[in-house]
Amino acid sequence: MRHILSYTRQELKAKLTELGLKPFRTKQLWDWVHVRGVVDFDLMDNLPKRERLILAENFSSFLPTITAEQHASDGVIKWLFKMEDGHEVESVFIPEATRGTLCISSQVGCTLTCRFCHTGTQGLSRNLSTEEIVLQVWMARSRIDDWQGRDKPRKISNIVFMGMGEPLYNKDNVFTSCHIFMDEHGMGYGSRKITISTSGVVPEIPAIGEELGVNLAISIHASNNETRTKIMPINNKYDLGQLIESVKAFRLKETRKITWEYIMLDGINDSEEDAKALVKLLDGIPSMVNLIPFNPWPGSPYKPSTTENITKFYKKLQRLGMIAVIRKTRGEDILAACGQLRSETSKRNTVSLEFPTVVDVYGTEAQKQRIKVEITGAEA
Ligand code: SAH
Ligand code: SF4
Hints:
Elements (H helix, E strand, L loop, with lengths): L8 H10 L6 H11 L13 H10 L6 E7 L5 E6 L5 E8 L4 E4 L3 E3 L14 E4 L2 H14 L14 E4 L9 H12 L11 E5 L6 H8 L2 E5 L5 H7 L8 H10 L8 E7 L7 H10 L5 E7 L13 H13 L3 E4 L18 H4 L16 H6 L10
Parallel strand pairs: 4-7, 7-8, 8-9, 9-10, 10-11, 11-12
Antiparallel strand pairs: 1-2, 2-3, 3-4, 5-6
Bound molecules: S-adenosyl-L-homocysteine and iron/sulfur cluster.
């Protein structure tokens, strides 16, 4: 049985017709699920009892169990959501002064073995379904009480596919999820509020512009093929030349820039010559370079660049006319920072956990009780 959260609005309408319900129920149902954050058919009191029973019989209303919820000292929250088959998926909430970003996963693990990435050491377990991608946002919004209606500012204002996995190797489910997030009668996230980050799956890149129009972030991390191949094996398949070509084919909306993610690895890619080569490579593309301090993890083969080298690199980019920012590392104390996600139970015992005493969950008591929290990682 499919989950109600896996349907686009058009699909839901067709399904309701198939079940003998009136098409106008779509809007009511959509409002309950995506605006009010209620998936229990039993609670949908503007639907006749008989129809609620039909819905309950024909849709799965599974909710993941939260097996860990860690709060970092800087307000970052990391969740591990246990899916129906037992696989765990990580999502991270990053609050900032003017926005709140939810970083979500597209796969359990990843097939690409970027050498600096903790997720990459885990291998791929499987792709996430549309339901599991949408559930991450739905669950996070429920946990932080973020169902305040469409017109009020929301705590999760932005969604980024920068958690575990390569989104373009799970393109269909990632794209359908984006359509659901962007539906104007539902969650209504604007295309500027969603970012897909890719390590460079060249053939799929233009479709992000053509089919979705969301922001594109590319993990470039090096300005020559030799270094890039060393740290990102995908460069053997699609090299920098092909990558740049595909980005040029990406239909950029006016004023929209491509974000280039560049991880700063000591002595590997962090010289001023590298900065110069990067600017040359990106010539002609409206760009923003995001310099990412490397977040080490147990056993990682690289060292983070020194603050001095990061600053030099940054200044060099600026002098050459490139817009750049140095990303602030968030959630470090709970291994929630970029590249540190790895859904292994064993790992959870190695970090210090601070569990919240109270996090208010939206909804009636009945709905609150359906979100099960089973913290299992706190043992010494
Ligand atoms: N697979 C996609 C999206 C997930 S990775 C991609 O590679 O773009 C999200 C971001 O985290 C990427 O830019 C990735 O390069 C970065 N990242 C991976 N490991 C990291 C680490 N140890 N420290 C900092 N950033 C890292
Ligand atoms: Fe996969 Fe992205 Fe990590 Fe590379 S950086 S291993 S593509 S998740």
